[in-house]
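pinned: reference chain
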Amino acid sequence: MTARAQSWHALRPAPPKIPAAMPLMLDTPTDADLPTLVEIWEAAVRATHHFLPESDLQVIKPLLREQYFPAVQLTCARDESGRILGFLGSAEGMVEMLFVDPSCHGQGVGKRLMRHAIDELGATRVDVNEQNPQAVGFYQHLGFVVTDRSRLDGGGRPFPILHMSLG
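pinned: its structure tokens
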């Protein structure tokens, strides 16, 4: 984790560790939840997208609420107290976004959201930044395989995208 990510993450209260047997609640976030989703997005990006310059992060951040969230079906994962631990956005069989609070990485939140996307929403495709090897490995572990590669991201920036489908 970079110093920038560490210092920002230190400002956020960490949710409690999730016991392996604890079921997560999945639901559709309300408008009141959107600031929390933006916070989780920023924390997750700072923890995993080390290749993304601060200037790009600041350009993308306001677009979340203005363009990106409205374009997808959002699902959030909550702990038993109702705290949002992560969220997923999907559209037309594709997972368009998956972000989990970094303090919950490796605890099954992302996997639970992806199982929901695959089993309930019919998702079979996902695009992932090639420069985010943790995410690539996560999707491969769930059965996704790389089917194509784009040298630029959707915004035309030089961040290669791997297009993945369920194998």
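why pinned: The two ends are 31 Å apart (CA to CA). The longest helix spans residues 34-48.
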